[in-house]
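user: can you give me the structure for this one chain? tokens are fine.
assistant: on it. calling the predictor now.
[tool input]
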Amino acid sequence: MYHLNTSDSNSTFSWNFDSVVSSCVLGLCCLVGIPGNIAVIMRVLHNYKKVNFTLQLMLNLAISDLLSLLTLPVSIYSLLHGWNFGRVLCKLFSYTVYCCLYTNVLMVTLMSVHRYLAVLYEQLWARLQRTGEWMLLLSIWVLACLLASPNIFTRDIVDKKKLLRCQKSRISDGVKVAILFMETLLGFVVPFSILVTTYFCLHKKVNQTAFFSNQRMTRLVTSIVVTFFILWFPAHVINLLDIITTLLRESQPSVYEKLKTFRRAGGDIAKTLTFINSCVNPFLYAFALRPRSRNS
């Protein structure tokens, strides 16, 4: 990604287009997303006396977004200068980032399920009561931590063209394919399927009610699904390319090299897009969606 050429007299830094664009996008995410999510947290806490599950979801989503965005300065530095923080911090940093991203995806998914059940099966949702809702939120964080745990065992420092990178180490092809497949299945395919299904069913069953007669709500629901797809799909395309290249490395070396070149060209940019979602969320959920009651 970044090449360092040194001589006795001087040092020359050469950053490729991919790393520069990714760093600029991540920097913009910091400038916009961190204040935005802090504002959401303050706003939710100010209204927390109303205590409804929608507010709790917003608060947890904003916290996970904020935590993921706070890791970006380290990501920017490592993109441009390599990973210089040691092996242990590499594992912990990767684990933290993935934990926050999984929490983000799961909270968005839970929000869609909540809207579906709260509108169509209000009495069923009410049976959860306050304790059940807290346990549900806690379960999301625990599940995200479990899904992120492979990073503790697979991440390591790799020397790539005189640049140290914190990335998946030289694990077996079978393990690598299994981890990438799990990331795409549990981090995109299943959540996106739930998002689309719940909102489609909700729209189909209550499109004549006040819930969807509100144009702002209709736009919000559409933006949730479209934004999630646009910002997460490229990263999982890269995951699928990694799976294909891993499987074809020995049998189809020419195809492997072509796919690997394409993957290097857009890998960091594609995965950078996922952090934009953490900047968009405050506007989608906190400012557009205004909870009206405890179960709304």
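assistant: here you go. The domain at 14-287 is CATH 1.20.1070.10 (Rhopdopsin 7-helix transmembrane proteins). The chain has one domain: 14-287.
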